[in-house]
Design brief:
alpha+beta; 5 strands; 22% helix; 1 helix
């Protein structure tokens, strides 16, 4: 997982968490300065989504997410609408 910030710094590590605002947490991170002349090794870091310029995600991860979404979609098709009664249809004895 490679992340480049708007200020030019880069972070390369394992994606642990990501939220709807694209705030991410990385582990086993290598940070590079914007000039490319300094490096740091971090155990874990949090990056605010609004500072991210570029995010490189491995193709295998994208494929896994697509498969998971398809499985969830198929599972919801089977449960959607089951047990529903059509409009205007009487249920049971009216008296």
């Amino acid at each position: 997982q490679l992340v480049e910030l708007k200020n030019g710094e880069t972070f390369n590590g394992h994606l642990v968490n990501c939220d709807n605002f694209m705030n991410i947490t990385l582990r086993e991170v290598y940070q590079t300065s914007s000039e490319g002349d300094r490096f740091w090794k971090l155990r874990e870091c949090y990056i605010r989504g609004s500072t991210i310029k570029y995010l490189r995600v491995p193709d295998a991860l994208l494929d896994d997410v697509k498969e998971e979404q398809n499985r969830a979609r198929e599972a919801s098709k089977g449960t959607r609408g089951s047990g529903a009664v059509a409009r205007g249809e009487n249920i049971g004895d009216p008296c």
